[in-house]
Amino acid sequence: MNTIIRLVLILTVFSNLAYSSSIELTSPNKIGNTTIKTQRFGGSTTIITEDEIKTSGAQSLGDLLKQVPGLSVKQTGGRGGLISIFSRGNESDHNLVIIDGVKQNDVGGSFNFEYLSINNIESIEVLRGPMAGFFGSSALGSVIIINTKRPSDKTEISLMNSFGFNQSFKKDTVGQTDGGIFFVNEQAISVSGPLNKDSNDINIGYILSYERIDDDGYRIFNDAFNNKVLNAGINIVALDDKLKIQTMVSDRWATVRYPTSSSGGVGAYSSVSGTQRDWRHLNSRSINTSYEIYENSSLGFDFSYFFNKRVTRDSGSGNVDWWEKKKTYNYYYEIENYNNDLITLDAKIGYEYLDETSNYHANASSFATDYGHNTYIDSIYSMISLNFNDSAFADIGIRKDDHEYHGSKYNPTVFLSRYMSSELKLRGGYSRGIKYPGIYETYSATSLDPEESESYEIGMDYENTLYALSLTLFKSKTDNMIAYRSSGSPSYRNLDEARSKGIEVSGLFKLQNELSIKYWLTYLETKAVNVNNTVQQNSYNYANWQDDEALLRRPKTSGGLIISKRHNNLYVSADASYTGGRWDYQNSSTRLYNESFWDFGLYGDYLFSSDDLYQSKVFIQVSNLFNDKREEILNFTSPGRTAMIGFRYDTSK
Fold this sequence. Notes:
Helix content is 6%, strand content 57%. The protein is mostly beta strands and 653 residues long. The chain has a 22-stranded antiparallel beta barrel. A five-stranded mixed beta sheet has the order 1-6-7-4-5. A hairpin with a 3-residue loop joins strand 29 (597-610) and strand 30 (614-623).
């Protein structure tokens, strides 16, 4: 209650600061299905556009997210291996991932970003910090919103084809690599446009896209990765633009193979009993409808469905099959751009119901019935965005989540920003987040409390025609963290607590002759706290939790830069990223220091044909340019150099 009172007082003072000289801003887009408008938001947000994706030289979503300050991105081995993201010191299962409006985290909160191809993405929105007031449960460390290409009002065709090779390191002491070359190729096609271009009563647009990746890996043993993605969508606008319906469907099939023993260890050939295979089928569907009942106000209904089937096979006894289904129903009333002489208001109130089911397949193993569950979370929420004379802004959200077994939680979120001039914005805020226990954790511990986080931040953004700078200072804490302990009962308990603070910096220099430098830097301090009982100090996972010691896999310093140059039809960029030293674990009770490393990449394209109707270019991209051997995660050697050459064609008419 004291926190709420303080926030109300801050907001009251803040509203009085709004001055009358209006600053002309471009029309900002909304973030996700909220009232937040990008350019006016007081929180830490990074938007990655389609053009930035195409010219980044990135092979995966993980490569793109490494450029976001505050995120520590780590990958286990080669392409297809698990990509974990630690946002501002939080755990890797504290990131809420939303794709085309569908929440897509695995049971327990984890998400492998490697299963997403980047060829059909229109934009990526990254909100750092807890955001439960706007997005609900699981939004502890960050919210990552991925928008694939949408139906368009004119015919558009996009084609991409590329091929190349992975070059492994010279033969090492455990025989995982031999300096060989392994083939990789990718293709993508997208077609969108109107279905009834000349109709005045109803407008229908469509999109259909397909992508595939075939990567033979980088080691002697088979560690190949295959990925296929099919997306489709339809937009309908009718009744004088009052009725809007959008539906999206996505099917993804991914297989990754990696040489491990049945216990998961990677070692010399003699110790590897076989190649493990992880197969996924992910299907998501969504329909979003809204109807304008009065001017600037509408009723809406969203439905989303997510299915995740996983099969893991190896030559040992570790075969596992499981599936998960999520259905979300969201009903809301929304007001947009309601204004008087002083304030412009956007507001939304709603009710959301999430039904979640998962189970092991009946014939999978002796664990066939251990983890089956069917549970729900129902939520009521409200959010409001206030615009004071186009100079000061407030985004406020509050949400009550009620879990069938783990209780109710209220979570407020407040962010404020003010433009001191057309170039300088000051911002800051307070936010909370929760994550309810996953089914694995609750099998023998039904009384667990949700994990909770709380964060404060303050920052500034400055931009003119020559350079841009963004600076954020933050401080956060996470409580009731759920940990596994091999001794005692139940196995999972609310034991761990953590604190973090840091500075995030990013910016851009625009030099002469279309030369630019983009940069980002993160300084992060983390520590475990209140580790003062024998359960934690003498049990499994103690390596990760030592009192007043840094958390694992979170470097204190990290950053990078991209230098790009355009000359006539030629575009070239070179990137360098730095990951500082960090602690990792050798086993459940022993931690080791993992050394820092640099990663270099190169991208170039040549526009050989372009007019008002189409554009064609060839491109080349190289990752791990100098074929440096490193370990992003201890005991997992990262892949060597990858070089790709390709062709891209885009047309519109």
